[in-house]
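Provenance

Sequences were taken from public entries as deposited. Structures were produced by running a predictor on each sequence independently, with no templates supplied. The record for Putative rhamnosyl transferase from Sporanaerobacter acetigenes DSM 13106 is shown for reference.
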Amino acid sequence: MKDNQTKIMIIESCFNVLAIRKERLTIDWIENRMKIFMNYTLKSLKAQTNKNFLAFIQYDPKSKDIIETEIKKYEKLPANVKFVTPEEFKKIVAEKIKNYDLLYMIRLDCDDMYHKTFIQQLYDINPSKQTKVIINQNGYIYDSVQNRIAKFFYTSPNYYTLIYDVDKYLGGERYELPGGHNYVINLPHEIIPKRNYIRHAHTHNDVTCFERYNIKDKDIIKNEKMINEILKDFME
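Predicted structure for Putative rhamnosyl transferase:
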């Protein structure tokens, strides 16, 4: 791609719009997930060395009152981070991107984190014209319950950035991902080798993920100082 093409970075995150869990609309669930978002994901967003991005956290409109109540318990959100409904997301994105050449649609779960230099890395990358997605295969898994962290690799993970020509996106183009993120690797792609993400295991998702992914003991970082240094690179 040409160096002079203008890019807009948009982080897309789902809070409780996916009907996977019945409790996603309850006060207790929202309160707990909001705490995790504010204490981890938001800190990662605020720590970005390049703040020229927009982050939209999508929530189910049926939970609007609870969401607004919970947000008020915390420090005011940065101007570039907003909680929106899916319909609001579509309208705002269409408005925000129209004066740019390229849209970088960055996927991030609302309890996970990107390295504080990640947005800058995306601005620095000059992908080929054929590239449709930038993939982060290397990262970490962090268990905040037992305070343990491990190196993690996934061939086609959910830490990716889709690249769209803005005119085509506004015209309705969307890349098909049959089966979800496991298909991303099949798109024309480029890979960032840096450990750019933290997959966060906590009491409200899957604290046994170390076992589920068969994490090798040699990949587990047990030194508390090293754990804190890694977290600092993502949250401060």
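The CA atoms of residues 168 and 174 lie 9 Å apart.
The chain has a mean pLDDT of 94.
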